[in-house]
Amino acid sequence: MGLLETIKRAGLGAVEAGKPVAILFGTITKKNPLEVIVDQRFSLTEDFFIFLEDVRKKVLEPGDTLLLLRVQGGESYVVLDKV
Question: Per residue in 36-53, is it b (16+ CB within 10 Å) or e — as a string?
């Protein structure tokens, strides 16, 4: 890896470190398999979500809105509750 690439990665890491989490809203578009559109910008499947036990017990249907906590890097989202 070259010096320029190393500097770019360090800069990106500094930006991400400044915003370790974000609270977002998602709307369920499909129930099985689960699909959620997040902030009307992008769609994610169940693989990206970590469900709290209380949320798992709730009946989730298409059209329901979820309160999400994006984990740093955006590779996983904690489903905090159904709104």
Answer: bebeeeeebeeebbebee
Q: State the Cα torsion 19-21-27-29 to the nearest 10°.
A: 90
CATH number at residue 58: 2.40.50.140
Q: How many domains does the chain have?
A: 1
On whether the pTM is more than 0.85, the answer is no
pLDDT given for residue 9 in this prediction:
76
Stretches where the chain sits below pLDDT 50 are: none
Q: Which domain holds residue 78?
A: 20-82
